Structure to design on (626 residues):
């Protein structure tokens, strides 16, 4: 072939190839702009394999996985993208979030810091950059999590229980509507389903709730007659207005129950065609409705709001403010019967992506992470409690090990353990009144300070699955420290932890006696000394009948050393004689010795009379207590 024609043919083929790739690029971008991320990824991958617009298409793949909440795949592509020049700071933020989803917290902070330095909204990451730990729930209940039997291979989430009926949201696609595929996820549109408590049979909710668009999640009034539910802007079998970017936003609708069916669908007046309003939760008294919205003027992506309901009218929405809402996303509020507000957030510090947080009535100024196992490194959301005794509940999560994209998990909410016990004397077994028992946390911070009653008893509540350092003490006893382990206690309602304290080996402390003093140059037992010795007799007779002691007696420094030694011996003898005379077995006094002036209590050279008196004394030493 003529060389000139060969070159022309190659140029034509190259142009044809470029034209084909350009067409694929337009198709991929169109799918992405239409939120068809699953389909877009496949086209973008084909372009990357052909080395066409590689950096741009890798970012689009990473962003698609970010939208699909798939950290494993998103990180794989972001890792290449962030090393390229002239990358938008938003990519650093998304990469950091996906790293959190994989529990790579240190690496995540590196890219959050880079985003903070270059981004337009640096305050968005302030809390996530803090190296201090997560503020975990201070309540003493314990949560047990297990997959619900109603899960399918599709997305299932947003569970709500009312009067024995469980409502939930699912993309399983067998509701009584024309099944359409939602391009964002590649699954059917969401519908609301029901099942009975403890049952396995699932059916679409009856009435006019489900349509060809997304429905759910929902909330129902305490009397079971009114439902508020989320749906795309769709009413009377018609799509509502889309925003300028072609997005059909979420709205909250109200339905009324007639027999077994939900009818009379009504759009709430605080919804809007230009932004989403969804995830309703109704207070027990039916007077306050909480919801999530990305309305303009909020703290960030999506915020929690509330409206008051009175005589069928609704107040203007009120943003719950910066305590709850962050520059990130706050979604899926749930207001419990006792008034605790639960919600999910990726802006408050957590274990990964969305975590469940709570603001309790007892701590209204503190946002607390519910901790593990409620939360994981991926998305955890849609916390609800069942009505009644609040021992059951649900969360939704895309954590590892599930059946579908999102799954429903049942919560068994265990009440705190009652910790009780008796503090006793290790020698005589008698209860110790006013002993103190302290419980500490893993950081050695005191979390409980208790005093025993006259029977030596103490009682408090503790959480399960913890190891508590514990300390018991009393002025007359040696302090005892130990660890209390509350693991493997699901079948228990209380733990009995008795404590024995060993008495200090100091009879003056134990008997609460003062020193046994003598007059100058005398060895007789004075009346004040007799009262103190009577206390010692009582201690040895009634408290510690096995107590064995020795006596040591002393003098002041006046007189010769030899004279003072003999005077001290007479004082030891008179002390010994008094105890024996009042019933103490001589065998329990193994030694009584005079030391003269050798061991003064006050070591003075020119002693005054008060100092001399302090040195004229008998003292006692414990030899054996058992």
């Amino acid at each position: 072939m003529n060389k000139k024609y060969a070159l022309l043919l190659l140029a034509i083929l190259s142009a044809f190839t470029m034209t084909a790739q350009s067409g694929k690029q337009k198709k991929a971008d169109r799918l992405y702009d239409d939120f068809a991320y699953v389909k877009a990824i496949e086209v973008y991958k084909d372009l990357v394999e052909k080395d066409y617009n590689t950096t741009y298409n890798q970012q689009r793949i990473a962003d698609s996985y970010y939208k699909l909440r798939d950290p494993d795949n998103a990180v794989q592509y972001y890792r290449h993208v962030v090393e390229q020049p002239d990358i938008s700071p938003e990519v650093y933020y998304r990469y950091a979030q996906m790293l959190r989803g994989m529990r790579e917290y240190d690496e995540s902070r590196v890219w959050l810091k880079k985003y903070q330095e270059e981004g337009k909204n640096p305050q968005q990451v302030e809390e996530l950059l803090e190296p201090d730990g997560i503020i975990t729930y201070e309540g003493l209940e314990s949560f047990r999590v297990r997959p619900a039997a109603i899960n399918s291979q599709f997305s299932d989430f947003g569970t709500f229980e009312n009067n024995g009926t469980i409502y939930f949201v699912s993309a399983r696609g067998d509701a009584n509507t024309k099944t359409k595929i939602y391009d964002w996820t590649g699954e059917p549109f969401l519908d609301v389903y029901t099942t009975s408590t403890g049952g396995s049979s699932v059916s679409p909710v009856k009435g006019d709730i489900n349509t060809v668009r997304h429905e759910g999640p929902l909330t129902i009034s305490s009397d079971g007659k009114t439902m508020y539910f989320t749906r795309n802007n769709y009413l009377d079998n018609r799509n509502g207005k889309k925003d300028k970017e072609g997005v059909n936003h979420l709205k909250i609708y109200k339905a009324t129950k007639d027999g077994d069916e939900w009818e009379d669908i009504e759009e709430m007046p605080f919804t809007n065609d230009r932004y989403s309003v969804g995830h309703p939760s109704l207070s027990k008294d039916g007077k306050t409705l909480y919801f999530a919205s990305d309305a303009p003027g909020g703290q960030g992506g999506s915020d929690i709001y509330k409206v008051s309901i009175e005589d069928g009218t609704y107040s203007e929405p009120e943003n719950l403010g910066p305590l709850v809402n962050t520059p990130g996303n706050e979604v899926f509020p749930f207001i419990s019967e006792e008034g605790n507000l639960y919600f999910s957030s990726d802006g408050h510090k957590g274990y990964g992506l969305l975590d469940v947080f709570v603001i309790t009535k007892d701590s209204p100024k503190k946002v607390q992470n519910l901790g593990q196992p409620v939360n994981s490194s991926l998305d955890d959301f849609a916390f609800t409690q069942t009505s009644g005794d609040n021992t059951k509940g649900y969360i939704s999560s895309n954590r590892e090990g599930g059946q579908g994209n999102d799954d429903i998990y049942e919560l068994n909410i265990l009440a705190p353990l009652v910790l009780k016990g008796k503090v006793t004397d290790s020698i005589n077994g008698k209860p110790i009144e006013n002993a103190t028992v302290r419980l500490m946390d893993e950081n050695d911070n005191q979390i409980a300070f208790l005093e025993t009653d006259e029977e030596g008893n103490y009682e408090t509540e503790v959480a399960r699955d913890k190891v508590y350092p514990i300390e018991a003490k009393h002025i007359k006893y040696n302090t005892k420290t130990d660890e209390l382990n509350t693991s493997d206690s699901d079948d228990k309602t209380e733990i009995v932890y008795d404590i024995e304290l060993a008495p200090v080996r100091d009879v003056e402390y134990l008997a609460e006696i003062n020193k046994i003093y003598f007059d100058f140059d005398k060895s007789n037992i004075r009346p004040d000394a007799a009262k103190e010795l009577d206390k010692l007799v009582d201690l040895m007779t009634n408290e510690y009948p096995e107590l064995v002691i020795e006596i040591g007696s002393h003098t002041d420094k006046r007189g010769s050393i030899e004279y003072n030694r003999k005077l001290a011996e007479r004082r030891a003898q008179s002390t010994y004689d008094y105890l024996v005379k009042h019933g103490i077995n001589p065998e329990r006094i193994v030694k009584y010795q005079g030391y003269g002036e050798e061991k003064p209590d006050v070591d003075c050279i020119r002693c005054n009379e008060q100092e001399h008196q302090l040195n004229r004394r008998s003292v006692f030493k414990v030899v054996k207590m058992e």
Notes: Confidence is low (pLDDT under 50) at residues 11-17. DSSP finds eleven helices and 37 strands in the chain.
